[in-house]
Write a structure and sequence with these properties.
The structure is a homotetramer. Chain A has helices at 38-52, 57-62, 139-142, and strands spanning 16-21, 66-76, 85-93, 99-108, 111-123. By secondary structure, the first copy, chain A, is an alpha+beta fold. Chain A has a 5-stranded antiparallel sheet with strand order 1-3-4-5-2. Chain A is globular and about 45 Å long.
Chain lengths: 144, 144, 144, 144
């Protein structure tokens, strides 16, 4: 495993926050949000972070840079339910020339529900690894 | 609306059948399969029909033909539950030079659960309408 | 079919609007939003409408009223793409003592992308049809 | 993290195998299967394993035992594409009185595509942790 981050449960450790509201379609027959639905929440939060930094993902893709998910880890601490308003904290770490990692904290009204880590790599239009754009390694990215 | 087919509830009217088993991830907090999960079932059955006819969808796509969904209609008659084994009957109709329609019957152990209709059009790699391949208008397609 | 509404393409016909942003997870290998992803958009907009009317869906469910989807129809007019901001217009119609219908208009920057209709019925905790709460048949609901 | 298993890339280490075919609905605009779609594959394989062992998940649920996902980890090694036929190998490990873990190997025609680990706990109808049924700790489960 390349997972290098250990996500904190202290919201102060997450410089960027994105809010989502859970959908009924994302619940399951246990009456809670299905565990697979968390990954699109993390992705939506990443997309919001890139937009916030002035480098929207659509711009990256039009420049021939795609970001692939190399690894994903989620720890489900307490369930999410339908219509919960979830605050996702994001923190960047473990940045290399071709990859970076994100730690996530999911809270509902300050109660921790889950933590997560994703590992990302940059590829070109042919699917080959390539360097991340320069701003990825600068403080603007790692300290949003 | 272009919907031209009225799906029968008689399984004898459906020349091709495809079987799926519902997933837990597809259920919702009402304890039944979520209504949005039916559309991927229909799609999986269409893909199976094309494979059965000797023209798999991947081959169509590599030839520059994409099939887009123009309209979709589902009537939910009785719910599906987790782990149900669903037999999807398919019948082709309303074939034109650039479009066709499919009627569907979803049953579990001969009990009707849903009926559906989808309307499809052929487009080229640039997203423009194009003629369907010739075999689409022949009896092999309309009578699988 | 019970579908009784013909959704207009004039945004002025839709008293309530809800906005969603498409997710990357909802796109498919054609590079557009997959047709099955529209149904959760419609559902999210319905939930927002009920909240706006002061009768959130979670409250309905805790009172033992569930709303089931009896029929769904979508007409895909122009594709949605990743990161599109979609304005969903909603209009209520065909209200009976146990069911109602909703018409939807999906636009991106005033360009029509899709129209849709869903048919809903009220059931009790045992899955049997029951009367809709009184406010469903009043002008507050049908004219949000 | 509780993750205790390191999934091998040798198919001989996985006593049980389940096959799925990827759906078009599961692809994304990169032309590959979206990373969130893997979790339902793992779940479908777990359900198939329980059925194979003579203790289907529906039976467990009717006995008041629910299995919750406490953690999930996926390493995406090479992408999956539409219509790929995926063989999922499963191996049980780290069994305690209230939890167990599963390691997964995803292959397409003997080429490794992904590895994964999930951590599961047993809960009762009120959501409280409870002991796993006895057969979970026996060799039948850990050596399917």
């Amino acid at each position: 495993m390349r997972l290098a981050l250990t996500p904190s449960t202290d919201s102060g450790d997450y410089p960027f926050t994105h809010r989502v509201r859970t959908r009924f379609a994302e619940t399951d027959a246990m009456g809670i949000v299905h565990h697979a639905a968390y990954l699109p929440y993390l992705e939506e939060a990443r997309v919001a972070l890139l937009r916030h930094l002035g480098h929207p993902y659509t711009e990256l893709r039009s420049e021939g840079v795609d970001l692939v998910v190399l690894e994903a880890f989620v720890r489900y601490r307490r369930p999410l339910h339908f219509d919960d308003v979830v605050d996702l904290g994001l923190a960047v770490g473990a940045v290399t020339r071709t990859s970076f990692q994100l730690a996530y904290l999911l809270r509902v009204e300050d109660e921790v529900r889950a933590t997560a880590v994703t590992v990302h790599g940059a590829i070109d239009a042919d699917g080959r690894p390539r360097r991340l754009p320069g701003w990825f390694t600068g403080p603007q990215f790692t300290r949003p």
